[in-house]
Write a structure and sequence with these properties.
- The chain is 57% helix and 5% strand.
- By secondary structure, the protein is mainly alpha-helical.
- The chain folds into two domains: 53 residues, no CATH class; 149 residues, no CATH class.
- The radius of gyration is 36 Å and the shape is elongated.
- The termini are far apart.
């Protein structure tokens, strides 16, 4: 009988867990401490009451721990967790057999796609900037001189007539900056857009330019306060969005190419490795 009782007690302990017994003495201690300090501003009797509650709370709380901890047995309720999905088909990523995980994205755009997108976006941005110069300033050279002023700050100290007129040095500098920046951002778009699974034009063409414009708006006063007074931020943001949408549309229309990160090094290096490279229909391995 003793053995049966021991087995039943072990089963009961396996289905239960001991936790500290609930007690209200910590609340009594906290109330007493609050009344002790409140009596300093009100009455001494309040402090005396707080001292009494503090001592009672300490004694009561200590007796919950010493000489033996008061604990209660809480039953353990096993919960069966089932992971379900509403999808009828499970998509599997095609990866090499010796790879532990896939490197995403599996497909990306070639470098030429980013260059084409950057050039097209730069043209759209330049057209909108020149339209701003004609409509707002009366000269298409005004935004060009402003762009050159990001590096050549002396251009901002020129008179209005010179700022609205054509200058070879400002034009060449602005063209170099605009072409180089557009190409680099186009390459960035080509690398980032495959990472957006849904609506890449919305994320890369709208959200990105808006965030970039907001960042530049908050820092331009520190970088170049003289230039900040000449920028029309509505037109500036519109030109950035035009660049993003145009570059994004050009990039996503290009044909994607499979990335080689998921392939073994021998295949990426072009080395013939038996057992890795697939056989052709005639039984020979590709060279």
């Amino acid at each position: 009988m003793a053995a049966d009782e021991q087995v039943s007690q072990n089963l009961r302990h396996q289905a239960e867990i001991e936790t500290p017994a609930p007690t209200a003495w910590p609340l009594v201690l906290a109330l007493g401490a609050a009344l002790m300090f409140a009596g300093l501003l009100t009455s001494a009797s309040v402090s005396v009451l707080g001292l009494f509650l503090t001592v009672a709370g300490c004694v009561g709380w200590f007796r919950e721990v010493f000489p033996r901890e008061h604990e209660v047995a809480v039953p353990i309720i096993a919960e069966e967790i089932s992971i379900t999905t509403e999808r009828k088909v499970v998509e599997r990523l095609p990866i090499a057999p010796d790879q532990v995980r896939a490197w995403l994205p599996l497909e990306t755009y070639p470098v030429s796609a980013g260059v084409k997108g950057g050039i097209a976006g730069g043209v759209a941005m330049a057209v909108l900037a020149c339209a701003y110069g004609l409509l707002k300033a009366g000269s298409i050279w005004y935004p060009i001189n402003l762009l050159a002023a990001t590096v050549y700050a002396q251009a901002l100290r020129l008179g209005p007539q010179q700022l609205y007129s054509f200058h070879w040095d400002s034009f060449g500098l602005a063209l170099l900056l605009h072409a180089g920046g557009s190409t680099l951002v186009g390459l960035l778009y080509g690398a980032m857009l495959p990472m957006f699974a849904r609506r890449p034009i919305v994320l890369g063409g709208l959200v990105g330019p808006v965030l970039w414009s907001g960042l530049l708006y908050s820092t331009i006063n520190l970088l170049n306060p003289l230039l900040a007074r000449h920028i029309d931020w509505i037109w500036f943001m519109a030109s950035q969005i035009a660049f993003g949408i145009t570059a994004g549309l050009i990039v996503v229309r290009q044909t994607r190419m499979t990335t080689h990160e998921n392939l073994p090094f021998a295949i990426r290096a072009g080395v013939e490795a038996p057992g890795i490279m697939p056989k052709r229909e005639d039984g020979e391995r590709p060279r």
